[in-house]
Amino acid sequence: MKFDHEKALTRAEVLKALKARWEFEKRTERVPVGEACGRVLAQDCHAAYDLPRHRVSSFDGIAVRAADFAQGVPDTCEWVRGVHFTQADTGDDFPDEFDTIIAAEDVGYDEAGRLILNSALEVKVGNAIKRAGATMGKGELLYEAGTLLGPEALAILAAGGWAEVPVVARLKVAYLPTGTELVPVGTVPERGQNVQTNSLMLGAYFAQWGAEMIAYDIVADDRAALSIAIDRALAEADVVLVNGGSSRGSEDFNSELLQERASWFSHGVKAVPGRPIGLAVIEGKLAINVPGPMIAAYLAADWLVRGLVCHYYGQPMPQRVKVPAVLDAPLGARPGFEHLARLVAHDVGGVLHAAPVPNSATLAENIRSVNAFLAVPAGVRYEAGDVADIELLGTKAR
Ligand SMILES: Nc1nc2c(c(=O)[nH]1)N[C@H]1C(S)=C(S)[C@@H](COP(=O)(O)OP(=O)(O)OC[C@H]3O[C@@H](n4cnc5c(N)ncnc54)[C@H](O)[C@@H]3O)O[C@H]1N2
Ligand code: MOO
């Protein structure tokens, strides 16, 4: 499908246009609290009760009556466990007749098992006692709707009585690999064939971002078959990704098929790699024709699908750590286009340097070595030796 570079939108314009037109329904489901890490809370969650339910000791030690210490440390030779004092270790409840704790470090016993206390002790009511509700008070707001739950949140919610947690249902992203040349993983490709692998990479990313991928079987470059598959995917998912057939090949039908169904359609983004992307809004759902090549598919997922996932969950797009690096090669795209530069960053005598992978490298080598990213704005060109703030992709700089 032909497209006009001048009409292509910037990445920011694409995100804005799609978010403005996307009509998604945020479904809610309840999941066991142990499975809620990484999920987004669908409603405010309050503590169901005070915890601890009643005051407890906050030290390993013994519970005593402070009144017995009004004149200083008493003679405890005749003290009877359970009558004059009782064991009360950290987190332990103890009978209400006792009102203070003496830490184990200040407590001893003689050969006859009689209690001996440090004579310098000052004992007041309420020493080393954790009040009722100190962990959480009944009705306390534990987490607000919209919170992205992390490991600690699971523990706090569970402590507050939430054995099951109401969360936003996972965004469903249908992934449709298309191309007559594609064969499934496990098949040795013949001449003219290629292994369908983007679904593995994208599915793993979507899982990290909290979206569920519905992976479809490979669809050949056949208009009728593609049309049926696209309609099926649109019925099943919130977002449909049609991978491949996005450009100008004689069998690149996908963007056309999306445009036919769309209330809004745009082809192409002013960013490379990944420029020939098809963007459609179909009955309030989003359908994206993601370019086939692995790096273009990765980039589209990273800036666009991730942005949409964050929008669905009401979360900000996570920002990567940026650090200054000396560029060892020029960077910048043709006029009007952003350059989404994937870089290899490495330390040279305490100074971070970065450069793109040489064109001569295999794709495998490229993927293995890239550990940084720089979005060079349209109209900007960096020369070798310039310093730029690069984003670290989370792998160790080498
Ligand atoms: N004459 C032109 N040719 C191309 C242009 C252009 O402007 N003029 N743009 C190039 C750019 S940039 C890109 S990006 C690609 C876009 O390609 P398509 O989206 O049409 O993808 P296909 O042609 O179907 O496949 C390309 C390549 O990727 C492999 N592929 C596809 N899907 C998968 C998958 N699921 N897993 C693994 N690999 C996949 C496919 O086998 C091909 O090798 O067009 C350029 N051409
Ligand atoms: O978008 Mo393409 O070749 O630039 O991957």
From TrEMBL:
It comes from the Bacteria. One of its GO terms (biological process) is Mo-molybdopterin cofactor biosynthetic process. Keywords: Magnesium, Metal-binding, Molybdenum, Molybdenum cofactor biosynthesis, Transferase. One of its GO terms (molecular function) is molybdopterin molybdotransferase activity. Its EC number is 2.10.1.1. Pathway: Cofactor biosynthesis; molybdopterin biosynthesis. Residues 174-312 form the MoaB/Mog domain. PANTHER family: MOLYBDOPTERIN BIOSYNTHESIS PROTEIN, MOLYBDOPTERIN MOLYBDENUMTRANSFERASE. Catalyzes the insertion of molybdate into adenylated molybdopterin with the concomitant release of AMP. Belongs to the MoeA family. This is Molybdopterin molybdenumtransferase. It comes from Gordonibacter urolithinfaciens. The lineage of its organism: Bacteria, Bacillati, Actinomycetota, Coriobacteriia, Eggerthellales.
